[in-house]
Amino acid sequence: MTKPSAPARERRGAARGKRRRGPSAYAVLVALAALAGIMLIPFLVVVFNALKTPQEYTSKGPLAPPSGFNFDAIRDFWDRVDFGHVLLNSVLISGSVAVLAVLLSVFNAYALGIGRIKGRIWVLALLLLANTLPQEALVYPLYYLAKQFGIYDTRLSVIIVFTVVQSAFGTYLLSSVMSAFPRPLLEAARIDGANRWQVLWRVVVPVVRPTLSVLLVFFFVWTWNEFLIPMVFLISNENQTVSVALGVLQGQRLMDATMSSAAALLGLLPTVVFFLVFQRTLSRGLTAGAIK
Questions:
Q1: pLDDT tens, position by position, 25-38
Q2: N or C: which end of the chain has fewer CB within 10 A?
Q3: pLDDT, tens digit, for every residue of 193-240?
C-alpha cells in the first residue's frame, strides 16, 4: 500500500481543519471583533472632536460625529507648536535610540550569553534591578552629568540616556536567548576559521534577527511615549519632542477641547503608522521566538 504524497496529506489536513471549525470558532472571532471595536471607540471620539468647531463641540457634545471636515483645530495646533519640527525631533530621537539600543544590547548579550564572562549572574541581576528603578530616581544624577558634560538641552543627551536605559532591558532579554544558542553552530564556525566578530554577525545575528526586530519596534514606541526625562532635558522649544510639546501646551491652558483632540490625534498617528508598517515584522518576530 503506497503512502499518499505530501500535497495530498496537506489537502487532507486542510480539510480536517475546515471540518473542525465549528460555531465556537466563529463565536471567538465575533468576540474578538467586538473587542477590537470597543478599543477603537476612544480613537474615533478623538477623531470626531478634532474635526469639529468649538461651537459644534459645545452644542452636540463629544460623542456626536462631526457635521463636516473642519481642520481648523489641527491647523492651529500645528502652527502653534511648529509640529513639523517637533515631529522630526521625536522621529530622530526615537529612531536613533532604537537602533543604538539594539546594537548595544547585541554586543552586551553576546559577551554575557555566549562569551560567558566572569560575574555574568551579577551583571544580569544589576540589569534587572536597573529595569525596576523609577525614572524619578534617575533624573537629578542624569541632569547633573548632562550639565557637567555640556550636553544639557540637546537631543544627544536624551539619545544617550534612553539608549542606555533601553539596552538594559534588551541585554537582559537577549542574553537569555543567546545563552541557549546551539553550541555546535559556534564550534563549526570557529573550525571554519571565523573570528569572534564574524561569528557574531554571520552566525548569531541571523538566528536572533526576529528578536532584534521586536526589540527595535518596542524601543521606538517606548522612547516616543517618554515624557519625564525629555521634559527635564529639553527645555527649549526647538528641541522638544511631541509628548513634551503636548504636555507644555496643555499645561499652559491654551487649548480648547477640539484643539486638545487635534493634539492627541497628531501625537498618536505617527506611532500607529509605525506600528502598521512594522506589524508583519513584529508578528514574525514573536512567532519565531515562540517556535524556537
A1: 788 888 888 998 89
A2: N
A3: 888 888 888 888 888 888 898 899 899 999 999 999 999 999 888 899
Closest CA to 217 of 275, 151, 160, 161: 275
Q: What is the dihedral of CA 142, 148, 153, 154, to 10 degrees?
A: -90
All 3 cell numbers of residue 178?
543567546
Q: What is the pLDDT of residues 102-138, one digit of tens each?
A: 999 999 999 888 876 777 888 888 888 888 888 888 8
Identify the CA nearest to 174 among candidates 219, 141, 138.
Answer: 219
pTM for the whole structure: 0.81
Identify the burial level of 266 via C-beta atoms within 10 angstroms of its C-beta, where 0-12 means exposed, 13-18 middle and 19 or more buried: buried
